[in-house]
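Let us practice reading a record.
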Amino acid sequence: MPLVALAIVAATALGAVAEHRWRGQALALSRRLIDMMVWSLLPFIAFFSVARLHLGGGVGAGLLLGYAMVAITGVLAHLAGTRLLRLPRPSVGALIAVVILANTGYLGIPLNAALLGHEALAPAIAWDTLISSVVLYTGGFAVGAAFGTRAGGSAAERVRAFFTRNPVLYAVIAGLVVPDVLAPQVLVDLAHASAFALLPVGFFILGVNLMGEEEGGTLRFPPPLTAPTATGMALRLVAAPAVMAGLSAAIVDVPHAYLVQAAMPSGINSLIVAHLYGLDLRLTAGTIAWSTAVAVVAALVLAPMV
């Protein structure tokens, strides 16, 4: 866990310093990295991860509650953005994205192992694969297409933007239908390794965007804790696990790993959605930074006590 925290801090700081020194070049690099992730690395990872995933037997009814939790918190984010904060449309979309997209892979999986032990890895990975990844290429991209400034003006254009800028969706569909023989284990292992290798890349992009969104280019961390950012952080870190715990108490007990995953901070993937479709980058980057900082500090404090 300390190594994960160190990688997050170092990569974010490197991105911020790069933007402070090279400005336009660093922002252009971050956009190229996002394009590379969306159009090559993420489809590769998704295809070979899903191709060997067997959906039967016992992934657990608790995963269905996970989808319900995502839906409920997404609705809460929409209501907060439109009724309470009265945000413009791209900011409402960004608020929904940072609430429904969580960092359950790079942070959630190692944190579950540190807090709950090795036996928590299987349910933590199941959550990341079957909930977080699915929500990204369905709900996350759909929110981007519905609320973004780069998705077109009409409903038809926004629907077209969802299907034409979502290569991960087609990679997952292909992975579900191909036989195992087309997904050799060596490529599956490479896909899993590539997913973890994206951690420093993602937080480098975050650092660049945190710096790029600062007025006047002043190097400052943490970023301003605005009302929208605080709302997104509260919904992601407090409301989401509370909803999951309530559903578990009312319907069926779920593994403790599911509750930990429900409490993970906003995911870097929300920044990808924001770039791709034109959501509020300042709100997105700020919420990722604040929620990640709070979650990492909490994890470092709690891990030795467990």
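A brief commentary: Residues 24-51 form the longest helix (28 residues).
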